[in-house]
Write a structure and sequence with these properties.
Blueprint lengths: L9 H13 L3 H8 L3 H8 L7 H11 L3 H11 L12 H39 L5 E6 L2 E9 L2 E7 L7 H14 L4 E6 L10 E3 L3 H9 L5
Parallel strand pairs: 3-4, 4-5
Antiparallel strand pairs: 1-2, 2-3
Helix pairs in contact: 1-5, 2-3, 5-6
């Protein structure tokens, strides 16, 4: 019996190109998405095919543009779109539908993470005995948590993914401070990393920061 040899894989070739563009090694991709280096190698060599949830994580790690995502999804679906005009309509349509499905899946995943993170923030505030209004709205402005204490107004904006749209989050906080007349706006994150986020506080430190700075939750 002859040994099986890896075949040229459109998915593997696309992954390799995206790894090069990101300046990553295959084993680093594996570490980021929870796969062994051997499993990544098998996928890139066409020996095995990633599961859907694995592929979703792979897209999140490798793709930064719509074009990159469509290339990777097309390769995953088995359609090589070297030029969009040259591909049969049916294959193009299938690839487009797969891109839309993947975007919807990623959106739901981020939404779920956001909801779960906000719940964890609420639990910390409850444990600290700090009164708050969740999902507070006033006209066009809103914030995840509004705390009012002795004439002070403190807004908490939750950021479950600290590596995504930080500049936009900081700009939103400036608007919240002005439009909701807050004394302070803090960005609550899962953990702090090299003080990269201005006015940020880790969820585990909310109680200490609010009690220390504003005497909240103390008897």
């Amino acid at each position: 019996m002859s040994a099986a040899h890896p075949t040229k894989s459109p998915l593997g070739s696309t992954i390799k190109a995206l790894l090069l563009a990101r300046g990553l090694k295959a084993y680093e991709l594996g570490e980021a998405i929870g796969l062994s280096a051997t499993s990544v190698s098998k996928i890139m060599n066409g020996v095995s095919r990633p599961r859907q949830n694995t592929f979703t994580r792979m897209c999140q790690e490798l793709c930064t543009t719509k074009d990159e995502k469509q290339r990777l999804v097309s390769a995953f679906a088995g359609t090589e779109l070297l030029q969009e005009e040259a591909a049969p309509y049916g294959k193009q349509r299938n690839a487009e539908q797969e891109v839309l499905r993947l975007r919807a899946e990623q959106f739901l995943e981020r939404k779920t993470q956001s909801i779960q993170f906000k719940r964890s923030v609420a639990r910390e505030l409850d444990k600290a005995g700090i009164a708050y209004q969740q999902d507070y709205c006033d006209g066009p402005a809103s914030t995840d948590f509004l705390i009012e204490h002795q004439g002070q107004r403190i807004a908490l904006e939750c950021k479950s993914n600290i590596g995504r749209d930080l500049e936009k989050t900081e700009a939103i906080c400036k608007l919240i401070k002005a439009q909701l007349s807050c004394n302070r706006v803090r960005i609550v994150v899962p953990y702090l990393e090299n003080d990269a986020v201005t006015n940020a506080v880790a969820v585990s430190e909310i109680r200490v920061v609010l009690q220390g700075n504003f005497n909240l939750g103390e008897s």
